[in-house]
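Justification of resources, computational component.

The compute hours requested in this renewal are based largely on the per-chain cost of generating structure records like the one below. Each record pairs the submitted sequence with a full structure-token output. That output is archived, and it is also reused by downstream analysis tasks.
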Amino acid sequence: MSTIILDFGSGNTCKNSKDYISKMYDQLKEIDTGRHEIIVKWQLFREAGDNIPLSRQSFDYAYWYGRELGYWVTASVFDRASLNFLLSYDIPFVKIANNTDLHYLIKYIPDNMMLYISSNVPLYLERNKKNYKQMWCISNYPADEKDYLKMKLKPGCIISDHTTNFNLFKNLLPSVIEWHYKLEDSTGLDAGEFARTPEQLSEVL
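The structure output for this chain reads:
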């Protein structure tokens, strides 16, 4: 059994539509066999280039709809205001993307809160190791499987997988793996070929 984190993205994918948010969850639920733990993760930021922010109202709806379906729901955060907003919910962890400019947020995350940090190099943080975990990540979209293999990952590792297949999952049997998630009709920056549809996920769920 692995923990599978599905990145539902920001407003890019759902366009801040409650109907589309519900559709994303409902199609996931249809193919979820319960064989693995699934955690839903969104992205919270005030602004980020051409990205569409997920509204606070949309996240609140997404959080409670996901909880009703039995999923833990959390987010990656990209600024302090978004972190403070996220911490007002009962969440399993906070996620920080592969960007050292965001590491300043660490000091604002409670010590007892689990923290996942994406990185392609080893991290050495002044934080209790029991309360943070490194998520090996190649920040290309899509990423080349060979670049992950160069990191000499071992079975049971923790991966943010931006490749276009399930080879890393099948060969390394990670304890935790993250994939971007989309529907067949999803559009936007988070819906590239690196994102997985429910039909694709049914192969491993």
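The two ends are 10 Å apart (CA to CA). The CA atoms of residues 15 and 52 lie 8 Å apart.
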